Amino acid sequence: MAVTLRPSTSQDSDAVWRIFSDILREGTTYAPDETMGEAAFLRDWFGRGGEQWVAESEGQVMGAYTVRPNQPGRGAHVATASYGVHTESRGQGLGLLLGTHSLERARALGYAALQFNFVVSTNTAAVRLWERLGFRVLATLPRAFRHRQLGPVDALVLWRDLQP
After folding, report:
1. Are 19 and 63 in contact (CB under 8 A)?
2. pTM (two decimals)
3. How far apart (Å, rounded) are the C-alpha atoms in residues 139 and 150?
4. Confidence class of residue 76 from pLDDT cuts 50, 70 and 90?
5. Which of 37, 75, 87, 89 makes an SS bond possible with 62, Cβ 3.0 to 4.6 Å?
6. pLDDT category, 64, cuts 50, 70, 90?
7. What's the confidence (pLDDT) of residue 33?
8. Nearest to 94 by CA among 85, 81, 105, 106
9. DSSP bridge partners of 84
């Protein structure tokens, strides 16, 4: 399977929404829930600056990420990012591809670090991936996420320095 990464365009909106509407319905990894509508999601995804990228194979969008300033003004030198992989494409290394590429793009855009504000602790595949890519846990937010199946679980704040 040949996967290509490219900047996302408005023509990708339907595919990106399909990926994330499934993720939001699952209720296990993202704070927004299934009540978030398509328009609100896409406004948030594409409308807060930064860059948005998609991974595609044979014309099908399989995953997406966005990288942008974590905070405005005096905090804008630190990036944050969000990622999603289509349910049928999970377990094929797309998370690693998207994560590695987002680190490269964050460096190229001049960010000093990449911070994840809210990684659900029970999302063990993501936690392992981010640790493999050099992130470290800065804080644990006790019972900060209402997991659909498990109830309240911890969320993590992760950090990766991007300066040489």
Report:
1. yes
2. 0.94
3. 21
4. very high
5. 89
6. very high
7. 86
8. 85
9. 64
